[in-house]
Automatic annotation (TrEMBL):
Family listed: Belongs to the ScpB family.
UniProt cross-references to InterPro entries, sorted A to Z: ScpB_csome_segregation, WH-like_DNA-bd_sf, WH_DNA-bd_sf
Main subcellular location of this protein, as a coarse class: cytoplasm
Sorted UniProt keywords: Cell cycle, Cell division, Chromosome partition, Cytoplasm
NCBIfam families in the cross-refs: SMC-Scp complex subunit ScpB (TIGR00281)
Organism: Roseburia intestinalis L1-82
Localization, UniProt: Cytoplasm
Function (record text): Participates in chromosomal partition during cell division. May act via the formation of a condensin-like complex containing Smc and ScpA that pull DNA away from mid-cell into both cell halves.
Record-given protein name: Segregation and condensation protein B
Gene: scpB
GO CC annotation terms, alphabetical: cytoplasm
Lineage of source species: Bacteria, Bacillati, Bacillota, Clostridia, Lachnospirales
Xref: PANTHER family: SEGREGATION AND CONDENSATION PROTEIN B (PTHR34298)
Amino acid sequence: MEEKKYEAIVEAILFTMGESVELERIAKTLELDTERTKKIIEHLMQRYEDDGVGVKIMELDGSYQMCTKGEMYEYLVKIAKQPKKHVLTDVLLETLSIIAYKQPITKAEIEKIRGVSCDHAVNKLVEYNLVCELGRLDAPGRPLLFGTTEEFLRSFGVQSIDELPVLSPVQVEEFKQEAEAEMHMKLDI
């Protein structure tokens, strides 16, 4: 079979599935090895970038998904009559950051880091499909473990959690000093 036919099949799979599809599943469907399949997908991804079309193919942690390019958002809003926009407050961002960097993590561990209850924040993040339950910890009470989702990866434009920025110890110390200074200012008021 020629490359164009394989690309058409990949395109049909990704369009029809609507969600991400693992490289191995695509390769099995094409009856090709994963290396050749990946090259076909990468060529197709490049074509979408070059052709100036409104969609693209994203790689998400070893899976691929067809999605709309960001610059098309304003037109989608016009036709969809304002889709529900999720607002990430400071509390939600802080909780999401903890989950992203420490996953899998329990609510108790998040609360220990934040120093306050996180039930509402975690529930909102699950509702927004940025966080999901990954199972249960093998410990007394069997608490739920939480981690990030593919929607998190899409929303923050990374292919895997390994691409999240790493803070140096110096930056961590600076953040601690800023937080302490801010707390002192609030207490003085």
